């Protein structure tokens, strides 16, 4: 149903609402009405896209909670996977409590935990070490990181010193499981010593 070329959608409205809607439509031009329809469609599409992205984010979060080595090995590398920071802080709190205890079992737990490297390091020390080799002009470098928190960046940067200043030459993603980062940089002269550094975030 239309009126002067302008579609009318008033059948489901209350009588007083129909009068107000009719007044608006009579004074609205077809072009303006079509613009409002387009605007409404754009808003609807953005709403659907946002909802889909949120569902995808939830799916990714759920996927991260699945043991990385499968359900048959849920405790494999458990100190560096899952909610590792909760485990590390719980162990540190228990060690602190056991340190003041006279129970021999408490002292045994402390000794057992000290066999493991703590994963909850200061956030400017998350880059543990790096190994490299240069072959036929290709620099191959692997950096080992401590586990990262959920809100921390998953990119690592490689910088080489040139003319007294460090320049970023490569960026790569952190590989999971393992918390490692792998770089391949071509055109490197193996006869020339070059200082390098691996950076993560603003301070590591």
Would you mind describing this structure in some detail?
By secondary structure, the protein is of the alpha+beta class. Helices cover 36% and strands 24% of the residues. The protein contains four helices and eight strands. The strands form three sheets. Strands 3-4-7 form a three-stranded antiparallel beta sheet, with no helix packed on it. The termini are far apart.
Write the layout of secondary structure elements.
Blueprint: E1 2-3, E2 6-7, H1 15-27, H2 30-65, H3 84-98, H4 104-113, E3 127-135, E4 138-145, E5 155-162, E6 165-173, E7 180-185, E8 196-199
Antiparallel strand pairs: 1-2, 3-4, 4-7, 5-6, 5-8
Average pLDDT across residues?
74
Are there runs of 5+ residues with pLDDT below 50, and where?
Answer: 1-13, 21-28, 52-64
- The tally of beta strands, per DSSP, is 8
Order of helices and strands: EEHHHHEEEEEE
Major sheet attributes: 3 strands, antiparallel
Helix content: 25-40%
Q: Quaternary status of these chains?
A: single chain
Shape: elongated
Cross-sheet strand order for the largest sheet: 3-4-7
What key phrases describe this protein's structure?
elongated, 204 residues, 36% helix, alpha+beta
Describe this structure in a few short sentences:
The chain is built from four helices and eight strands, in the order E-E-H-H-H-H-E-E-E-E-E-E.
